[in-house]
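Quiz preparation item.
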C-alpha cells in the first residue's frame, strides 16, 4: 500500500521549517531585551558653536584653563542622558556617547561571575534546540521524498515527531534560562551597565513563536503518524477478513 503525504505531513514539515527559521533568527540577533540607561553627560570637547545635547557645557570655551571659574549650565535632569541598549544571548550593545551608533561587548562579560553557569546552560540549550529542529526538518524532508518504503517512512515520521517535541521542550527551558540570566545581570551586574528601564524585545518574541510553532509541528506529525497507523490496521483487518471469506468459499 502506498503512503500518501497528505495535508498533515505537509503542514508539519512547513511548521517545522518555520520554527527552525524563527529559532535561528532569534539566536543570531541581539534584541532579546532592550531599554535605556541613565548616565551623567560627559564634558563637551567640541567647538562651542556646535550645539551638543549629549554633553555638559561650560560658560567658557577654554575648558582646560584652570584659572577660570567654570559654570555648568545643566541642572537637575539636564545633567543626565538616556542611552538605548539591546541585549541578546551573545552580545549586549549600547549607544555611543554621542548617541550615534552602538558599541557592543559579550554578554558573558556582563553576567555575574558566580551566575554565568545559567547563561552557559541557556547557550547550550539554544544550540541543542536548533540542532534537534534541524534533525526533525531533515527527517520530514526525507519522508516526503518517497525514497524509502512505507514502513520506513512511518518510522521516519515517528522519529521526526519525537525530535521535534524534544527540541521544543529544550527550547522552552533555554528561553527561561535566558530570562533568569538577564534578570540576574540586572540585579548583580556591573554598575556601568545596569539599565534604568528595560523590556523584552522582538528577538525574544521570535524565540517563543518558534517554540509554539515547533510544538504545533510535533503534534501535527504525531497526529499524521497515528492516523496512518490506524488506517494500516483497518485495511489489514479488512484484508484478513476477505481472505477468511475466500477460504470458506
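Solution:
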Amino acid at each position: 500500500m502506498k503512503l500518501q503525504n497528505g495535508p498533515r505531513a505537509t503542514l508539519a514539515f512547513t511548521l517545522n521549517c518555520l520554527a527552525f527559521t524563527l529559532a535561528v533568527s532569534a539566536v543570531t540577533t541581539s534584541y532579546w531585551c532592550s531599554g535605556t540607561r541613565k548616565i551623567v553627560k560627559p564634558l563637551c570637547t567640541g567647538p562651542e558653536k556646535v550645539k551638543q545635547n549629549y554633553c555638559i557645557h561650560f560658560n567658557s570655551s577654554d575648558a582646560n584653563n584652570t584659572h577660570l571659574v567654570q559654570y555648568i549650565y545643566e541642572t537637575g535632569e539636564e545633567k543626565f542622558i538616556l542611552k538605548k541598549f539591546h541585549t541578546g544571548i551573545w552580545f549586549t550593545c549600547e549607544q555611543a556617547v554621542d548617541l550615534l551608533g552602538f558599541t557592543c561587548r559579550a554578554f558573558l562579560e556582563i553576567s555575574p561571575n558566580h551566575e554565568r553557569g545559567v547563561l552557559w546552560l541557556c547557550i547550550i540549550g539554544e544550540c541543542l534546540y536548533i540542532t534537534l529542529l534541524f534533525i526533525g526538518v531533515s527527517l520530514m524532508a526525507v519522508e516526503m521524498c518517497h525514497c524509502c518504503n512505507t514502513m520506513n517512512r512511518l518510522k521516519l515520521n515517528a522519529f521526526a515527531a519525537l525530535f521535534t517535541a524534544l527540541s521544543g521542550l529544550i527550547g522552552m527551558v533555554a528561553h527561561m534560562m535566558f530570562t533568569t540570566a538577564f534578570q540576574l545581570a540586572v540585579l548583580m551586574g556591573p554598575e556601568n551597565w545596569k539599565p534604568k528601564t528595560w523590556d523584552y524585545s522582538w528577538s525574544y518574541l521570535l524565540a517563543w513563536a518558534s517554540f509554539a510553532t515547533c510544538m504545533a509541528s510535533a503534534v501535527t506529525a504525531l497526529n499524521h503518524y497515528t492516523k496512518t497507523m490506524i488506517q494500516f490496521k483497518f485495511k489489514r483487518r479488512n484484508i484478513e477478513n476477505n481472505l477468511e471469506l475466500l477460504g470458506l468459499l
